[in-house]
Amino acid sequence: MLSRRQEIILKAIVEEFIRTAEPIGSKTLLEQYGLSCSSATIRNEMNYLETEGLLEKTHASSGRVPSTYGYRYYVEYLMDSQLEEKEKNQLQTFFSRDLPLEDVIQESCDILSNMTNLTSLVLGPDANKQSLAHIKLFPLTDRSAVAVIITDQGHAENKTFHFEDKVSVEDIQNCTAILNDYLVGTLINDVVEKLNEIKPILERSVKRHEVLFNAFVQAFVKFASDNVYFSGATNMLYQPEFSDIEKLKEIMKMFDDSTMWRSIGTSESSIKVKSPDNKGELIWVNDVAIVSSVFNIGEEEGKLMVVGPSRMNYNKIVSILDFATQFIESQYKKKK
Q1: Is 176 helix (H, G, I), strand (E, B) or coil?
Q2: Per CATH, domain 128-225 is 3.30.390.60
Q3: How far apart are CA 297 and CA 336, in angstroms?
Q4: Domain 4-78, what fold?
């Protein structure tokens, strides 16, 4: 562990670098933070922090910047996560609206991105672990219907179908009965394959089988893949750390890998962050910092994340995430 003075200096460097994105020197620390020691003493302490791997020296100046290890130490031991009154009021105004839970989760992701100027995402329930429990299909007109797909974990997805040709109520009822007879208990990711196996049965019993078959295939393909929602991905373009186009391309590739996002938090290198519910986690992947917080809705688990450079405002982000996930859980219980 560091001495009290070393911790004060490290904390000041991290917070000043987060604010300015400029390397920090001893003069800045004296002027901005009024430390009760000489410039020479500060330089000696900075040298020590550098030898311990907590700070790094840049080529451009004699100033120092935090290393990943330095950020990790800061988050584990020095950070005081507390939501400012202005931010709290913004969140309370947003969450005071009466919205369906699905909208609350998605819009929480949007407001996180807007408030942090970073990228945010929400992970919905993992389709790999869910099986089909029931399908309901309600006709709206002779060219449209609403399908309700329910999983064994109680998750429900609503899909509106628009048909190019007319489909009778009888066809809709027969199709629904067949799908429930043959597909219940099938993993969501395997439903499309099973649909192809029972296609001959649909052909024998449903006149407009082709129209309904195609609609359900599209619905289940979307259901299996539509479990990661991003907001503010282009915010990465404005971070100085990602001005290198090759580095930016790598980050954009990360956004397309839903498996990677689901593995976040299972790594031994992830750390818990201090929050009232202790649900926050932090990990660094390829110079990218990812702060996440879990929310539970019934038997399902989701996760809100904020993604950005290591130089992010951890205090603010952890507090906002904690507020949002607590509200999502309370909103769900209220609507039960």
Answers
A1: helix
A2: yes
A3: 10
A4: Arc Repressor Mutant, subunit A (1.10.10)
Architecture of the structural domain at 85-126+228-335: 2-Layer Sandwich (3.30)
pLDDT tens for 92-120 read 787 777 766 667 777 888 889 999 999 99
Cα–Cα distance for residue pair 331/336, rounded to 1 Å = 9
DSSP string, 63-125: -EEE-HHHHHHIIIII------HHHHHHHHHHHTS---HHHHHHHHHHHHHHHHTSEEEEE--
Q: Check pLDDT > 80 for residue 276.
A: no
* H or E element, residue 120: strand 119-123
Q: Write the pLDDT tens digit of every residue in 214-262.
A: 888 887 776 666 567 788 888 888 888 888 788 877 887 787 776 677 6
Helices and strands (H and E) in the chain: how many: 13, 11
> d(Cα 72, Cα 263) in Å, to the nearest integer?
20
Strands (DSSP E) contained in the chain are 55-57, 64-66, 119-123, 132-141, 144-151, 156-162, 228-231, 271-272, 280-285, 288-297, 300-309
For residue 60, the 8-state DSSP code is S
Residue type, 58: T
Q: What are 87-93's contacts with CB under 8 Å, separation 24+?
A: 87/115, 87/316, 87/319, 87/320, 88/323, 90/115, 91/320, 91/323, 91/324, 91/327
Provide the pLDDT for residue 11: 95
Predicted structure pTM score:
0.69
β-bridge partners, 55: 66
- Note the residue count of the chain: 336
